Amino acid sequence: MDFKVHISTAGDITFDVHFEWDESMGVPDQKLETRLALVNLDVYVPRDEQFSHIKFSDFLAFAVKSLGQVQLPEIASVFDKTINEFHSFKDILKLYKEGIKLPDNRAMSKLKQCISWELLKELIRSDGEGFLKFPLPDVIKEDKTAWRTDEEFAREMLAGVNPVVIRRLQEFPPTSKLDPEVYGDQNSRIRWKHIEKNMNGLSIDTALKQNKLFILDYHDTLMPYLERINTTNTETYATRTLLLLQDDDTLKPLAIELSLPHPEGLKNGATSQVFIPAEHGVEGSIWQLAKAYVAVNDSRYHQLISHWLKTHAVIEPFIIAANRNLSVLHPILKLLQPHFRDTMHINAMARHILINSGGVLEVTCFPAKYSLEMSSAIYKNWAFPDQALPLDLLKRGMAVPDSNQPHGLRLVIEDYPFAVDGLEIWSAIKEWVCEYCLFYYHTDEMVQSDSELQSWWTEL
């Protein structure tokens, strides 16, 4: 029997799948196929890849809190004509302020003593902490309006959730790497006239030579998908943000470029608007909106690319190949296991509720149903050697070689917490791994003659 199945993906790509079915195998029946319910986390992973009971309880506690924050708005949306929107900043703060206060009495204390599961101990608290309540973000803990400042906007590119994209600008105006035959002219429209008054007296040439100009660039990442993304219920711009490093080692934004595909087609390039800092009036409000679009792109890129793709997904081939080729007593497997722990389990659940069709990422991220297609395209440019932190910093221009420095390089921004702390951790791990490996492999020939190790690397 010959079967053909016509499949349409979320990214509007269609293809046919052909397969043969031997009659001795019985008659395929679509009624026999079942799917897990959305909230069912009983996904299969090998037993040695499963969460510990503490890890799983911790995961569930956060999941229940997240669902609690989702369900109430879902119910409210039945009576709301502007669903999926916050009506005010007070609505946002409610996510962190409100919760169900539990009584602090003898009965509740006795109940807690009887519950040994970490999940319930985390959810049912009587120390004044609200039930199903998230902790208040540090950025607004002291000042609820701190996020509005240009200083905080720029600081988060170095010390926020996604400090791994900002890079030093080495040419002005910024250029695009997109194929002009396909996408037309996608180069930046930011010019000297836009940034001159905020350059602190520096010329472009001087600022470039002194490593003073930086950019957070999501233009080329988003532009190929914008036309399709903006036909969904979420819309965004491709963004470029230009920043200046000041004498006090802090960044300040110089300009934000918001771009859309040309209305007559991508081959005609982009239509772009450039916005510059302003504090008051209409210009001040527009500037805040421009920063908001940048922040949305940055946070969603973090979740989809920096977090899911470049942290969780890319490590799976290493885990699978290691388990297939390295024996349980192999020293390299022993070395890697702490870094592999829980990854396969969390990834399995992510495929079920996070990155699946109609899942959390598609609902909350602006790429919507094109999320995985976009992440797959970005993965094509992923290279394992480039993931070493020192090489990444050099590649992005955030550091320059310097043999006199502890790590062999010098940061161009001294107050870069991700890099400062990261290099300390990187060096400690490198020192430990080198000492560990030298204990088992004294020469290159010993590495080459290790058949298990060679099989592992060959599979990769």
TrEMBL record:
Annotated keywords: Dioxygenase, Fatty acid biosynthesis, Fatty acid metabolism, Lipid biosynthesis, Lipid metabolism, Metal-binding, Oxidoreductase, Oxylipin biosynthesis
Enzyme Commission no: 1.13.11.-
Biological process, per Gene Ontology: fatty acid biosynthetic process; lipid oxidation; oxylipin biosynthetic process
MF terms in GO: metal ion binding; oxidoreductase activity, acting on single donors with incorporation of molecular oxygen, incorporation of two atoms of oxygen
Classification via SUPFAM superfamilies: Lipoxigenase
All copies of domain Lipoxygenase, residue ranges: 1-460
Phylogenetic lineage: Eukaryota, Viridiplantae, Streptophyta, Embryophyta, Tracheophyta
EC class of the enzyme, as a word: oxidoreductase
The protein's role, per its UniProt record: Plant lipoxygenase may be involved in a number of diverse aspects of plant physiology including growth and development, pest resistance, and senescence or responses to wounding.
PANTHER family the UniProt entry points to: LIPOXYGENASE
Family statement: Belongs to the lipoxygenase family.
Source organism (scientific name): Oldenlandia corymbosa var. corymbosa
Name of the protein in question: Lipoxygenase
InterPro entries tied to this protein: LipOase, LipOase_C, LipOase_C_sf, LipOase_CS, LipOase_plant, Lipoxygenase_dom_3
Pathway this chain belongs to: Lipid metabolism; oxylipin biosynthesis
